[in-house]
Amino acid sequence: xxxxxxxxxxxxxxxxxxxxxxxxxxQTLNGLSLEMAHLLDRRLxxxxxxxxxxxxxxxxxxxxAFCAGGDLQGLYRxxxxxxxxxxxxxxxxxxxxxxxxxxxxxxxxxxxxxxxWGNGFVMGGGIGLMMGASHRVVSETAKxxxxxxxxxxxxxxxxxxxxxxxxxxxxxxxxxxxxxxxxSDAFFxxxxxxxxxxxxxxxxxxxxxxxxxxxxxxxxxVEEEGRSFxxxxxxxxxxxxxxxxxxxxxxLAPGPLKQHSFQIxxxxxxxxLDEIYENVAALAxxxxxxxxxxxxxxxxGSPGTARLAFTxxxxxxxxxxxxxFRTEYVAALHAAAHGDFAEGIRAxxxxxxxxxxxxxxxxxxxxxxxxxxxxxxPWPEGQPHPLADLGADVGVG
Length: 397
Prior knowledge:
This protein is of the alpha/beta class. It has one domain (5-375): 2-enoyl-CoA Hydratase, Chain A, domain 1. It is built from 16 helices and 11 strands. It has helices spanning 34-49, 72-81, 91-108, 125-131, 159-162, 170-177, 183-188, 201-208, 231-244, 256-259, 261-267, 273-281, 289-300, 303-315, 321-338, 341-350, and strands at residues 5-11, 17-23, 53-60, 65-67, 114-118, 121-123, 135-138, 143-145, 194-195, 222-224, 227-229. The strands form 3 sheets. The protein has a 6-stranded mixed sheet with strand order 1-2-3-5-7-9, with helices on both faces. It has a 3-stranded parallel sheet with strand order 4-6-8, with helices on one face. The chain has a two-stranded antiparallel sheet with strand order 10-11. Strand 10 and strand 11 form a beta hairpin. The two termini are 28 Å apart. This is 3-hydroxyisobutyryl-CoA hydrolase. One of its GO terms (cellular component) is cytosol. Keywords: Hydrolase. Residues 18-375 form the Enoyl-CoA hydratase/isomerase domain.
């Protein structure tokens, strides 16, 4: 089947249905294209309004990834074709980021439970899809990261909100290094809620069809000792019980992020990026391979991304999720116009020489004044923000 997203509605024993959406591009590790984002968003709107759908499941085809990022090839073509230094001229980037961010926000605010299966690679755009789900599940193969430092973008898809909510200064460290997290550290960082082995996932999906879901064709509500429970709370509880029943008996060993969290919190403390950058860079020769790789990835990455990610985390610390998406949208359009985004994709995916020519080339050149342009609204004066209505009736359209 060649459809980029496969949709199913599986009937349950009590007459409800489970909506299953499968990203179907395993050859590109289920990278999220604009078409996929449109399809997902439209179907989520329909399922939200359908009283017969109790739960939504998001998963990826194949065994290698849920979703390893966004449509970098399509964005690269659009950046090559659009006039440089005019962020509003790139129509494809405007549409891509608007649709993707609306989809991500819809998942955060969805009126029904969403189970997201974080199996294999979950990176960039995949993080955006997974993080808003009410029930975030990782398998033993899960590898989570926001590696935008290596392609000249920044941790978007709500990353400025998500990273700020991680323990201590670990979010700052991950933004600067793109370090990869295992299932244990996914829990520590607040990126996962449940752990289910890959081999147990088909059985979990089958079990969903046997549960007594609440809804219009099942029980409308349940009363107990004078209290009533709405369908959402009932279905959230049923999902939680089913997922906890599949948790492996052996506890996950602490991952490297947790093991080194004291040191990371110390290195990334304060409001001086130059100092933080220097502290992390000193880890490049560390005995621990995870720390050393993280530092070397930062040093090889875009200094402009480091500055932009740092500034976004500082500015968005107390802002709402809606405001974060609106600010990231402006920054993303600028990154597509005069940032390092195109150069990072070229070096990684097009020419594959892995020798990006970053501009600015140093963290000193990517200073506080340089980054200000990424916060200037690029559309014509008087025009509202394309995401101005974010948050209005997101569940149903």
